[in-house]
Write a structure and sequence with these properties.
This protein has 406 residues and is of the alpha+beta class. The strands form 7 sheets. It has a 6-stranded mixed β-sheet with strand order 1-2-6-3-7-22, sandwiched between helices. Strands 9, 13, 15, 16 and 19 form a 5-stranded antiparallel β-sheet that branches. It has a 3-stranded antiparallel β-sheet with strand order 4-5-23. The chain starts with 5 loop residues before the first helix and ends with a helix. The mean pLDDT is 96.
């Protein structure tokens, strides 16, 4: 199709996607039916790899980490589309009001079930974009890698970091993170960190508490201080950071023993440029008068479904591209060419795999996906079919606009 005009290419993409609506819906419904809760993604990964092979991808891999990666084309400009295959727990079917969150419902053009909006709708979209490019013969001077990555819900960025290390030949010039955005174009998001504050004490029976030192009571002023804190640096695009106490664990052998240790976990949302040292310095005034207290960024050791071990420091940096960045503008041009209007260009409030791919590696990134991101993790996990179709069109068109940026 290299002899066609851009307008003709975009028309062919639109007609192709619209003509495959029923197949796309069936794909997503079947995908949702395969349980892929974090660290249990193996069956879904094998299914996705099979679909990529069926769709005629030039190469399909399941790497040692357990990520599924497929390639279309072999041109100069390399794009990596990433979407995670894992989901949060299914939840109580009664709270959903449906028999089984894995048995997707389709009502009034909306597909509902666990993973529809986060993130299997988006992953279905980028997978079908690869098929559209192949079937339409649109492989021009670009290479498109489509990644179904694992374990994002727990340690975002860590499994794609391992993917880049285990697949050193995949060297993307540009990243697209497919997460729900109601088909708005995202050019950044805040990062996050987990701060663990360990407060020492001494266990004693509650009937003679004076013999001990109640770590939970000592922790209360720390919790109160953190709760009231709002003196964050304000980023002109991302806004202020936040900090919230999300968990308190007490070390105690019984319910009638005062705790000898309390561990406070805080979720800290971070703007551009905030380092680990900055975050710990911010906590210091709340803990400096308590002897033996320790604040640190948490470290997790996780094992993927393949047995691959990952150590993840719970510090995930933010990222931002300027709106006039050439890559962002290629996305604007693709959207406008398809739909005859400019997209809304904005930011996510949550963290994605772009925290590593762009935040750490510095590869230009954008985000885009069907579905309302505010519905992630809830019982209204759903994606409108019309948004999904439009997203596939965008995903298939973007390489045509980005291929000449290098």
């Amino acid at each position: 199709m290299s002899n066609l005009t851009m307008e003709e290419k975009l028309k062919s993409i639109t007609e192709y996607v619209d003509s495959h609506e029923a197949d796309i819906v069936d794909f997503l419904v079947e995908f949702i039916s395969i349980n892929s809760v974090t660290y249990n993604e193996g069956e879904a990964v094998k299914w996705l790899a099979g679909k990529m092979n069926e769709f005629g991808y030039d190469e399909v891999r399941i790497d040692p980490v357990g990520n599924c990666v497929g390639r279309v084309g072999h041109g100069k400009t390399v794009l990596l589309y990433d979407s995670h295959i894992d989901t949060v727990e299914l939840g109580d079917p009664e709270a959903w009001g449906m028999e089984d969150p894995l048995k997707a419902e389709i009502i009034d053009g909306v597909i509902r079930g666990r993973g529809a909006v986060d993130d299997k709708g988006c992953l279905a979209g980028i997978t079908w974009a690869g098929r559209a490019i192949k079937d339409l013969g649109l492989e021009e001077d670009f290479t498109l890698w489509v990644s179904g990555s694992i374990s994002e819900e727990d340690v975002e960025g860590s499994c794609v970091k391992a993917m880049t290390e285990e697949n050193p030949d995949i060297k993307p010039d540009y990243i697209l993170v497919a997460e729900s955005s109601t088909n708005r174009l995202m050019r950044g998001h805040k990062g996050r960190a987990l701060i663990k504050i360990t407060v020492p004490g001494k266990c004693a029976h509650a009937s003679s508490a004076w013999r001990g030192d109640n770590a939970l009571i000592k922790a209360l002023p720390i919790i109160e201080g953190i709760d009231k804190f709002n003196d964050f640096v304000e980023d002109p695009f991302l806004g202020k950071g936040t900090i919230e106490v999300t968990k308190v664990d007490c070390k105690t052998p019984s319910l009638n023993t005062i705790p000898g240790e309390a561990v406070i976990t805080c979720d800290r949302r971070i703007a551009c440029g905030e380092t680990i040292e900055d975050l710990l310095a911010e906590i210091k005034p709340f803990i400096e008068n308590i002897e033996g207290v320790k604040a640190e960024i948490d470290t997790e050791k996780v094992v993927s479904y393949t047995g691959y071990e990952i150590t993840a420091v719970d510090y995930f940096p933010s990222w931002v591209l300027e709106e006039d960045d050439p890559y962002i503008q290629s996305g604007v041009a693709a959207y406008e060419g398809l739909f005859g209007k400019k997209p809304e260009v904005t930011k996510w409030d949550f963290c994605t795999n772009a925290t590593h791919l762009c935040g750490r590696m510095g590869i230009p990134a954008m985000g885009y996906g069907p579905g309302d991101e505010t519905l992630c993790h809830g019982t209204q996990d759903k994606v409108p079919v019309n948004e999904l179709l439009d997203a596939i069109k965008f995903y298939a068109a973007l390489p045509l606009f980005a291929k000449d940026l290098k």
